[in-house]
Design goal:
four-stranded parallel beta sheet; about 425 residues; five-stranded mixed beta sheet; alpha/beta
Length: about 425
């Protein structure tokens, strides 16, 4: 009897150990419940048909799992992913053969295509577009959960969205400092069903306009149909429009064509895609608008500065001119020397692996923050993170270990302080 009792006890202990083991493996991250869909484990292969969702995947770093995209998903950073057709009627065979088990789709996906994929065991998550800032934030958290888990992924989504807002706020602060409290007015016009519309208060596009440091002329308008009389009174300093069809309608209306912004050329095309994709695309659209409104805020590149210096030097004497010519041939910006273009949205983080990381590592090695050239691998690991922290500390930046845009701009500037 004693032997039997001991055997049963050992069996119970073994069973509890197994439960604990498997519970520990999940760490509570999965399964994830999203809109009546259960995601059992972290997806490793993703097909994305919806362009705004792709923008969020890129921003959060989960684009590394993308193995296919629709033709409408045309972001340059994921252009290497093979096309699977249109977002409404995708080539289901291509999706099935891609090895994916998860598809991010838009509301307009063909139901037959959706059913065929689901019948093959492929989960289709239909994303709604974030028309308001709160909806966009929710999409960030939801996509983070699906791709990274209930805790880690959700936090990643939330943090990335907040980082995006911080970057946008930087532009607004620049404008506020420049204008000393004086507020310009702007408006955004587009066409829908051949009718002229305007971006109204509370929308995500309205939030973007606000980050230009200006006031949306439609801030107190709830109906997005264009009220010509209201626009005439508001007389916005700058007008942004969606496409040529919208521009034709503006110029075809006597009142709108007489607005000061139209007459003085303070009118710029910014597509609806740029205004509605809630990641780096929106950030680029904001930068485009701000630098159009206030070109003096646009940073001068190191190359432009060199050209200006060379031009000044050439006016002195023949000897100086000769020296300037020699300098010009060797005066490529630091980034150019590393075959790198630093855009306003470029940033790097741990686990990234690409040629940009390798260029950053080589620069860190050359100025003394990475000691061993064997660590110039193209993979952003702990060694690189520590080197970035040391660089940030030495150069008066916040020590995060993440190579954000401000860090990269300074790193590839001739004024960057060396380790020793």
């Amino acid at each position: 009897m004693k032997t039997k009792i001991i055997s049963i006890a050992l069996a119970v202990v073994t069973m509890l150990s197994a439960v604990a083991l498997f519970s520990g493996c999940s760490d509570g991250e999965y399964p994830v419940e999203v809109a009546n869909i259960t995601i059992e484990s972290q997806p490793k292969n993703i097909v994305v048909l919806d362009a705004p969702t792709a923008d969020i995947l890129i921003a959060t770093g989960y684009d590394r799992y993308i193995v296919g995209r629709s033709d409408e998903v045309d972001q340059q950073s994921i252009a290497v992913a093979p096309s699977v057709g249109s977002y409404e009627n995708p080539d289901t065979d291509k999706i099935i053969n891609s090895g994916t088990n998860l598809v991010f789709a838009g509301q307009s996906i063909n139901e037959d295509a959706k059913k065929k994929l689901q019948d093959k065991g492929i989960q289709v998550v239909t994303m709604s577009h974030g028309d308001t800032p709160k909806q966009v934030e929710t999409n960030y958290v939801t996509i983070g959960k699906i791709c990274g888990g209930t805790k880690t992924g959700a936090k990643k989504g939330e943090d990335t969205y907040n980082e995006l807002l911080d970057k946008m706020n930087n532009y607004k602060q620049q404008v506020n400092n420049r204008n000393s409290g004086i507020l310009d007015t702007v408006c955004y016009l587009y066409t829908e069903d051949d009718r002229l519309k305007m971006m109204t208060s509370g929308t995500y596009g309205d939030m973007l306009l606000g980050y230009t440091g200006a006031v949306n002329a439609a801030v107190n308008i709830s109906d997005n149909n264009v009220d010509v009389a209201t626009l005439k009174i508001a007389n916005p300093n700058f007008i942004f429009y969606a496409d040529n069809a919208t521009l034709d309608k503006i110029k075809g209306d006597t009142t709108l064509a007489s607005l000061g912004a139209v007459k003085t050329g303070k009118i710029l095309e910014v597509s609806l895609e740029e205004m509605s994709r809630p990641g780096n695309t929106a950030l680029e659209a904001l930068e485009k608008m701000v630098y159009f409104m206030y070109p003096d805020l646009k940073p001068k590149s190191a190359t432009d500065t060199t050209k200006a210096q060379d031009a000044t030097a050439s006016k002195t004497d023949a000897t100086t001119a000769t020296q300037a010519t020699t300098t010009a041939s060797d005066s490529k910006s630091v980034a150019d020397k590393y075959n790198l273009t630093i855009t306003s949205d470029l940033s790097l983080k741990q686990e990234d692996e690409n040629d940009t990381v390798k260029a950053m590592q080589l620069r860190l090695y050359n100025i003394g923050y990475i000691a061993d050239k064997d660590n110039v691998t193209g993979y952003y690991g702990e060694v690189t993170a520590e080197a970035v922290k040391k660089f940030q500390k030495k150069n008066g930046l916040k020590e995060t270990g993440k190579a954000d845009n401000a860090t990269l701009v300074l790193l590839f500037d001739s004024s960057a302080k060396k380790a020793k």
